[in-house]
Amino acid sequence: MKFNFSILSTCKAEFCAEGLIKEPIEAILSARIGKIEINKDNQHNPDGPGISLSIETPAFVKYTKNGIQPHILPDVEKKFPKPDISQIYIEHFLEKDTPSFNNYKDGIHKFLGLDENDSIAFFDILDPTNNKRTYSKPSNQHLTAETSGGLRKLTPELYSQLIKNLKPEMCISLADYLFMTSEEAVKGKKIAKSIERTINWLDKILLVDEAKNSAIFVPLMGSVIPEARTKFIELLKSRKYDGVVLVDYTTQLDLAHQISVAKASLESIPTDKPRFLLGFSAPDEVIIGIRNGIDMFLSTYPFAVTEHGFASTYSFVDDLKMSNFPKDKIQSSTLNLWDSSMKDDFRPITESCNCYSCSKHTRAYINHLLNTQEMLATVLLQIHNQHVYDKFFKDIRTSIKNQKFYSLSEEFLLRYGSRFSSSNAIQKNGSEQSSSDIDYPFNETNVFDPRKPTPTTKEKIKRFDLS
């Protein structure tokens, strides 16, 4: 398999939002259009023509549970834009120490029912939506996964075997993540040991020839210490890798701090390595990430919105022409389908949306489904929310190509009252009110914990509670 990433164009930064990097380096930290290209053999027809896949970035990677996108049925999933990338977490398959597909030799696509002609499998170990993990003692031999069957050990040898047997196009190498605050992380030798373990585990994966057939993305370690991040990059220079992952959400950094510390790493990383940001997927976070050179994001946001029983109403391009509205009017980014006002509202979720849910169904119907605890409610909401998220990225790519991204992105942040907008940055600097006291939009992921019942699952639990 051959993996290639190329930069097609960049968008010159006109400004940078308050609180973030004030002087971004054009080649390193600016919005850019890239292309991921994968050329591989057809696993089930080796004598036939090979398979070529390409995806333009900025793009999102589909969040999955047990290899399947939540609430999306297979026949509906096929109608979304292709090709796409699905993140598959080994942790979800570790109810026992040895996963069920350990010795499966026909590839992950066949195991999960994915079409290898239009789907890219991207392996990772840990589900990033779970950043409040049960403590386990660090080990040089294994990474600890948290499953429904308890804690499980995953070694670099087992991970290498899974990559060899299942043949994903892309994978993230093992890393010794620090699930603690940044204040705790800097104490003692925690960061130094995490760097050492991560490099050692990467070397073990690279020893397996078949594992080299997958594009390897490496988490950039070093936490909040610039010198430690620089040291990790120096160790990385002599090793083969295809992309990088920014993952310091595990130390509970906010986005501005995350991007700031990432600069110490990205300045020494070749610009033709794609950058994948974990832990931040809300639309306004995506915009700030793209402004600062990020190429890939995880699609946890539309899933979180669905789990709340909400529908997304945001759009990167202003469909409603805000020039006709008062300057101080803030648009809502979501619609609460639980609200009693939806009961007799027979309009689609969004008038201008052409997704299946908006074309066939009404707000009143989805409100009825939610209140009767029908599974179809979250199916219809996820179809819509995923469609809106996909269009959001498509419009962003178009704006970068047209050199309009920075102006349109600031309009977007202002239109929805984002905490990252220039007006809110000024207000916060001149106000004693804590930002945590302000109800900003796009906060669904901040209050979302997949291990706990959500508004939709709470209702299902109540329905079957016979006590």
TrEMBL record:
Polar residues bias locations: 425-437
Cofactor section: Zn(2+)
Main location: cytoplasm
Keyword Transferase: yes
InterPro entries attached to this UniProt entry: QTRTD1 (IPR028592), Queuine_tRNA-ribosyltrfase (IPR050852), TGT-like_sf (IPR036511), tRNA_ribo_trans-like (IPR002616)
Segments for region (Disordered): 425-467
Cofactor note: Binds 1 zinc ion per subunit.
Superkingdom classification of source: Eukaryota
A GO-annotated cellular component: cytoplasm
GO biological process, one term: tRNA modification
Bias-annotated ranges (Basic and acidic residues): 449-467
Binding site for Zn(2+): 353, 355, 358, 384
Keywords of this entry: Cytoplasm, Metal-binding, Transferase, tRNA processing, Zinc
Assembly behavior: Heterodimer of a catalytic subunit and an accessory subunit.
NCBIfam families the UniProt entry points to: tgt_general (TIGR00449)
UniProt similarity note: Belongs to the queuine tRNA-ribosyltransferase family. QTRT2 subfamily.
Known role: Non-catalytic subunit of the queuine tRNA-ribosyltransferase (TGT) that catalyzes the base-exchange of a guanine (G) residue with queuine (Q) at position 34 (anticodon wobble position) in tRNAs with GU(N) anticodons (tRNA-Asp, -Asn, -His and -Tyr), resulting in the hypermodified nucleoside queuosine (7-(((4,5-cis-dihydroxy-2-cyclopenten-1-yl)amino)methyl)-7-deazaguanosine).
Protein known as: Queuine tRNA-ribosyltransferase accessory subunit 2
Provenance organism: Smittium culicis
